[in-house]
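Q&A log
Question type: sequence-to-structure
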Amino acid sequence: MPRFHNICGNRVQFTEAEETARDAEEQAWSDGAFDRDIAHLRNARNRLLAETDWMANSDVTISDDWKT
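Response status: OK
Response body:
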C-alpha cells in the first residue's frame, strides 16, 4: 500500500527510497518494543522501591503488615 506526503495540500506519493526508509524506521520502532517495555517496568520498580526504602533503615521498626 503506497504512502503519501501532504505537501502544500497536495498528496504526493513516497518515492522508492522514502518507502524503504520509512519501512526501516517502522521496523526499528517495532524491534525496540521489548526494550521500551522493560524500561517502563524498571522505572515503575525503581519508583516503588524509592517509596519504601526508608522502611529498611536500621532505626525503623517494621510492622507485620509491612513485612508481608
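Response note: The longest helix spans residues 33-52.
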